[in-house]
Amino acid sequence: MDQRGLWQSVLGEIELSVPKASFAALFKRVELYSINGSEVEIAVPNVFIETQLQGRYKDLIPSILIKNGVKNPKVNYRVNLKTKRQAISREVVADDLPLSSTPVVTMPSRPVLKSGLNPKYAFENFIVGSSNDFAYSAAQAVANNPGTKYNPLFFYSGVGLGKTHLVQAIGNYVIKNNPAARVLYVTIETFTQEFVNFIRFKNQDFSSKYRNVDILIVDDMQFIAGKEKIQEEFFHTFNALHQKNKQIIITSDKPPKSIPTLSERLRSRFEWGMTIDIQMPDFETRCAILAAKANLAGVELDNQTIEYLANNYRTNIRELEGALNQLLAFSDMRGVPPTIETAEGIIEGSRASRPQHLTPRQVLVKTSNYFELSIEVLTSKSRTKDIVLPRQIAMYLLRSELHLSYPKIAQELGRQDHTTAIHSITKIQKEIKLNPILREQLNSIRESLYE
Ligand code: ADP
Ligand code: MG
Q1: What's the pLDDT at 351?
Q2: Calpha distance 390→366 (Å, rounded)
Q3: Distance of CA 414 to the CA centre of its chain
Q4: Dihedral Cα 33, 34, 38, 39, nearest 10 deg
Q5: Backbone dihedral angles phi then psi of residue 31, each to the nearest 5 degrees
Q6: For position 161, what pLDDT does the model report?
Q7: How far apart are the C-alpha atoms of 360 and 401, rounded to whole Å?
Q8: For the whole model, what pTM was predicted?
Q9: What is the per-residue pLDDT for 314?
Q10: Half-sphere exposure of 131 (CA within 13 A, CB side)
Q11: Cα(65)–Cα(10) distance, rounded to whole angstroms?
């Protein structure tokens, strides 16, 4: 059997032996990278998944490999290792090799040009998941071959999703590999300010600063809206660089066509190269980011706490990071462990920021959809095991997400007696601590509630 056939058969067996939600969350994007006798290298998309595969699913892949004829498999999991298939299927030729293991980006002294880069933004500490892997691959491709591939490279996304991090990582990477490279990072506000000063005081050589670089990175381009003179100046800067095959990298909170009053000629130039959006990170990516950041801080968080934070901050990685920092600072100052209870205490207030439109009905619909039951069956009197658990989960979610009273929860489920609701919710609360599958089921349903 060839490598591909082997892996398909392994995945097929995994799919049959783990719950649907676990398969989707953990195994779908795992790939066989190489197999050499008994040495097996498996590419996983992030550290969260790696931890799960080395932890509670430790024996699963090796045992299925044995069944498929691999003798004594020695399995190594590798994060950020793009398999050839992934790289090709995206039509972005990313480096096939793992990233350099040097974690710290050192800034050589550069008397001539101050790059404006912050060395803390590196590829090595950028967590890749399905929401940003395309952007990440393009960033790597440009970092390896600036000026030749995608010019300009244009990233857009909502706030706090990693644009600044990723574009600065490109700059830092380039300087690390080639200290002579002239890299300049500015926000469009700085560009604007310097241009205004130049016009007013003629005291700096504005054009030569911006036009004599190998890589120009301009952050937050949306603020060019409504500024005609700046648009014109940037247009000339762009042309001067592009003609010399110098790399231009731009970020914005919206795509070029949606930046209001952007001149037509500038818009079309922004669209010459590659325009990529960074999406909201999915649950597993958020967990991976938390695990990695806690790790950097030298703290090990349990899965329950990580999942709790990841569930409460869905749309902005800066806020997710902020919550983690708050938790770590609090537990440090008070000398308490950073557990889920501590986290709950700290971020209770932020629950108010959750979407208001969630209704009890939606909770029931999403829960029954998840378990492939009809809502009538879910709210029926049936005591079959396959229905009792989904019903208890629905009650738990009505409590945790909507803070309904017990009598109200009973009523939503078509019941008179609210003690059933209390029993069900207490049971789930206890079981969450012991049963990772249940936690995952809850996470998947919660995800679907806030999609
Ligand atoms: P944006 O520029 O899109 O508003 P930033 O790049 O400033 O977002 O990201 C906000 C914070 O989140 C930064 O501290 C950044 O390091 C962190 N961050 C964003 N995406 C990731 C990621 N994929 N992995 C690790 N940290 C991330
Ligand atoms: Mg930014």
Answers
A1: 54
A2: 11
A3: 39
A4: -80
A5: -135, 150
A6: 96
A7: 9
A8: 0.64
A9: 87
A10: 23
A11: 7
